[in-house]
């Protein structure tokens, strides 16, 4: 990607009006605002059951000024496939179809419809916003929850299994564009969605979206926590276009400077890690370091 846009270069047009039902400090809303600015007015959205359904509100009132389908939990990609087919059948051109689903609705429940749509090369954007649990129903563990986190279904012994590497799964579908983005870096979000809008075929985004309610940190710290994730290499900002991986933004400057923070400060910043064992922290650091080294080597560092 060329030089990053300044946040001030994003259009003034807002597609999410002030006032919605998300928790204070929710990370999803920051990114969603810039996603919609990048995609523009000819965007059709489909949202399965998740916190973003709550943002969209109860029919007929909504703070989002884009036409949206509220679909079944596992059905985001099949619903998007139907929208794409409908546009084609009725001869409507120039529209972007986007599915906006949570980690539960993607890593777990929606994986089969997403895999099918990606294999067919369906012309749409799929966004998995990852708050690392089933938050809308009270923070149950998902396969995106990191090891060491307490959730309402791992309340005594924290989750033991590591987070699923979903980008690798999506890359195996050989789709033209995949990217990771964080709500703490909205200019990176804006630039990547602007680029993805004009690519044809299945485009996949993994969006890191810290959640004060489920991660147990003060609502004012969402951006700080999101930045910590990137600065420790826990969440790496990159894009893969036709198989070529490029680091972007903060992750690119970290690779150039050779500086990466340890995971300790991140772990200590959230109540969900209050029962993590020293062995789990060491394993967390080891797996982050291994992944960082492998991404750096792929990016030519
Ligand atoms: C088949 C089915 N099972 C369970 C539910 C209940 N349900 C609604 S939202 C949700 C959690 C969604 O988690 P995720 O996709 O991670 O999104 P988040 O709530 O974290 O934004 C669940 C379990 C449902 N709507 N449909
Ligand atoms: S539970 Fe988390 S992701 Fe859901 S609205 Fe609240 S802060 Fe946002
Ligand atoms: Mg979730």
Task: Explain this structure.
The chain is of the alpha/beta class. The chain has a single domain (23-298), classed as Rossmann fold (3-Layer(aba) Sandwich), CATH 3.40.50. It is 38% helix and 14% strand. The chain has 12 helices and 8 strands. It has helices spanning 27-39, 51-56, 76-89, 104-108, 111-120, 166-171, 186-197, 212-215, 222-231, 249-257, 264-268, 278-298, and strands at residues 43-47, 68-70, 96-102, 125-130, 177-182, 203-208, 238-241, 244-247. It has an 8-stranded mixed β-sheet, with helices on both faces. Strand 7 (238-241) and strand 8 form a beta hairpin. The radius of gyration is 18 Å and the shape is globular. The model has no long low-confidence stretch (mean pLDDT 96). The structure holds thiamine diphosphate, iron/sulfur cluster (SF4) and magnesium ion. Residues 102-104, 131, 133-135 line the site of magnesium ion (MG).
Any descriptors?
single chain; 301 residues; alpha/beta; Rossmann fold; eight-stranded mixed sheet; 14% strand; binds thiamine diphosphate; binds iron/sulfur cluster; binds magnesium ion
Write the layout of secondary structure elements.
Blueprint (H helix, E strand, L loop, with lengths): L26 H13 L3 E5 L3 H6 L11 E3 L5 H14 L6 E7 L1 H5 L2 H10 L4 E6 L35 H6 L5 E6 L3 H12 L5 E6 L3 H4 L6 H10 L6 E4 L2 E4 L1 H9 L6 H5 L9 H21 L3
Parallel strand pairs: 1-2, 1-3, 3-4, 4-6, 5-6
Antiparallel strand pairs: 5-7, 7-8
Helix pairs in contact: 1-7, 3-5
The structure holds thiamine diphosphate, iron/sulfur cluster and magnesium ion (MG).
The site of magnesium ion has 7 residues, from loops.
């Amino acid at each position: 990607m060329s030089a990053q846009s300044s946040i001030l270069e994003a259009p003034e047009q807002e597609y999410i009006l002030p006032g919605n039902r998300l928790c204070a400090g929710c990370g999803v809303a920051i990114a969603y605002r810039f996603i919609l600015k990048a995609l523009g007015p000819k965007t059709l959205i489909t949202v399965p059951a998740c916190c973003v359904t709550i943002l969209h509100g109860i029919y007929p009132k909504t703070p989002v000024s884009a036409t949206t389908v509220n679909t079944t939990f596992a059905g985001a990609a099949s619903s998007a496939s139907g929208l794409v087919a409908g546009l084609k059948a009725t001869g409507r051109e120039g529209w972007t179809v986007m599915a906006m689903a949570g980690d539960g609705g993607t890593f777990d429940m929606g994986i089969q419809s997403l895999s099918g749509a990606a294999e067919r090369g369906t012309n749409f954007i799929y966004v998995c916003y990852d708050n690392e649990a089933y938050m809308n129903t009270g923070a149950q563990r998902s396969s995106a929850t990191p090891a060491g986190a307490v959730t309402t279904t791992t309340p005594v012994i924290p989750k033991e299994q590591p987070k699923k590497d979903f980008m690798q799964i999506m890359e195996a579908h050989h789709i033209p564009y995949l990217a990771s983005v964080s709500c703490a870096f909205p200019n990176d979000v804006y630039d990547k969605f602007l680029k993805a809008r004009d690519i044809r075929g299945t485009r996949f985004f993994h969006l890191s979206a810290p959640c004060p309610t489920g991660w147990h940190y003060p609502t004012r710290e969402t951006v700080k926590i999101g930045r910590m994730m990137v600065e420790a290499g826990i969440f790496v900002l990159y894009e893969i276009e036709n198989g070529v991986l490029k680091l972007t933004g903060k992750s690119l400057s970290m690779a150039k400077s050779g500086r990466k923070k340890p995971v300790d400060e991140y772990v200590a910043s959230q109540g969900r890690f209050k029962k993590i064992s020293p062995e789990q922290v060491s394993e967390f650091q080891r797996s982050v370091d291994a992944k960082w080294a492998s991404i750096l080597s792929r990016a030519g560092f």
